[in-house]
Write a structure and sequence with these properties.
elongated; eight-stranded mixed β-sheet; alpha+beta; Arc Repressor Mutant, subunit A; 39% helix; 19% strand; 473 residues
């Protein structure tokens, strides 16, 4: 029997705000333990939370980027549970009336486009972080109360690779939109995996296994690559899968049982009495809608369509937004955007990696257009153009000025090139004879000699034509 996996993901993303969700404590990574805390985020008696408006805006903005519905009323609830990293013994979250619901995300996968439905993206608060030492444990509450967005997908994913592609696309969207920096090393993105298997063609879901301890997208893929075959093996051997929570042991490459989860845990949700329901007004929504940006996939598709770029070049500009914006400013004024893209990616990007910024470029954008035009007009050779670009980058001089000062103009005078060809043939009778005998590669050697004699100024295509004519029987 053939089985298929059914996967849903719960992605937890820290929002990019200056302060925490309910108080004025800094939302900052790396501070000494328990230095960004106050009576509100420590849950001391008598304190009242006040919602962070920017967190509300970023939540609705995320919903818009994920094509979600934005309800006219959302509320906050208390999710009650007892754990050392939760100072209040309840988490403020959204339960039955979230800020966004019923969306979708589209991404590239397996040579086409895949779409995964988004159940909801709801706002809640993060918890503290536990540390375990040799003889004791401690909790750092700096992270407690940081605004956290939980993005829940429908079980539309079917493989480990598809889950990885989904998470990568989600991260790109959130970074593009300014929602989060999504720095996984700082714990800004975490993920829980829900996975089951069923006979292919079956519509009923199998026993759902939740996998915790996912701290990287590659870890999610590795965990699924282990867990899916494990579940299939249990069924093929006549066993039964029970709903449970497992943890991913990345060094060992296995999932391990944590706890049984046959019945849903009763968190005793109830509306938070200290927080009013959130009902966004039209003027507020208009301000948030103005922050909607072009999505990464749409940007890549537009670059391919509008500028006729290869997919690889468009991918570079999708991943490097400032570089893509620079390319587009130049390309809009150029008749050959594909050549502009090649110079930006192959030359400019390499020089920028040495430490220069786009804002610090010495040459004006129009110089790239001028350089491409000189090559197209065969005024300079491709190799000479490399020299021009290097000096243009270092000095800011215009390409035409550099060509004139350094005498780099390409020789296209037929009589001059004939003289170089005659010298090359006379100096290298062996390769000349080889070409006459049918060895086509010998012509490239002779052409190289012509370029050397002309100090790189000869028109290469014209030199090849002259050599062929002179060497033909």
């Amino acid at each position: 029997m053939e089985y298929e996996a059914v996967i849903g993901l719960e992605t937890h993303v820290q929002l990019k705000t200056r302060s925490k969700m309910w108080c004025g404590c800094a939302n900052e990574f790396g501070a000494p333990p328990n230095t960004h805390v106050c009576p509100v985020c420590l849950g001391l008696p008598g304190v009242l939370p006040v919602a962070n408006d920017e967190a509300l805006r970023l939540t609705v903005l995320t919903g818009l980027l994920l094509h979600c519905q934005i309800p006219g009323r959302a509320k906050f609830d208390r999710k009650n549970y007892f754990y050392p990293d939760m100072p209040k013994n309840y988490q403020i979250t959204q339960y039955d009336q979230p800020s966004t619901a019923n969306g979708w995300v589209e991404f590239e996968f397996a040579g086409g486009l895949a779409r995964v439905r988004i159940t909801r993206a709801h706002l809640e608060e993060d918890v503290g972080k536990s540390f375990h030492f040799e003889r004791h444990s401690g909790v750092d509450f700096n992270r407690a109360g940081v605004p956290l967005l939980e993005i829940v997908s429908e079980p539309d994913l079917r493989s480990a690779d598809m889950a990885h592609a989904y998470l990568t696309a989600m991260k790109d969207i959130l970074v593009y939109g300014g929602i989060s920096d999504c720095d996984m090393e700082k714990g800004m993105v975490r993920c829980d995996v829900n996975v089951s298997v069923r006979p292919r063609g079956e519509t009923k879901l199998g026993a759902k296994i939740e996998i915790k301890n996912m701290n990287s997208f590659s870890g999610v893929r590795r965990a699924l690559d282990y867990e899916i075959p494990r579940q299939i093996a249990v069924l093929e051997q006549g066993g039964r899968l029970a709903q449970e929570t497992r943890r991913w042991d990345d060094p060992a490459g296995i999932t391990e049982p944590m706890r049984s989860k046959e019945d849903a845990h009763d968190y005793r949700y109830f509306p938070d009495p200290d927080l009013m329901p959130f009902e966004p007004v039209e003027a507020w929504l208009t301000e948030v809608k103005a922050r909607v940006v072009e999505l990464p996939l749409a940007r890549k598709q537009r670059f391919i369509h509008d500028y006729q770029l290869p997919a690889g070049n468009a991918e570079v500009f999708k991943n490097d937004v400032p570089l893509g914006d620079y390319f587009e400013r130049v390309a809009r004024q150029s008749s050959n955007p594909k050549s502009i893209a090649n110079w930006v990616i192959n030359n400019l990007r390499a020089r920028l990696a040495e430490g220069t910024t786009l804002a610090g470029l010495k040459f004006r954008p129009g110089s790239l257009i001028e350089l491409v035009a000189l090559v197209e007009a065969k005024t300079i050779s491709t190799s000479a153009a490399q020299q021009v670009f290097a000096e243009m980058f270092d000095t800011g001089k215009a390409p035409a000025q550099i060509v004139q000062e350094r005498g780099l103009a390409q020789v296209s005078d037929a009589s001059a090139i004939e003289q170089f060809c005659d010298q090359a043939i006379a100096a290298h009778p062996g390769p000349a004879a080889d070409f006459k005998a049918g060895k086509a590669a010998a012509l490239n050697f002779l052409k190289g000699q012509v370029m050397k004699l002309s100090r790189g100024k000869a028109n290469p295509s014209l030199a090849g034509e002259v050599l062929e004519r002179k060497l033909k029987p």
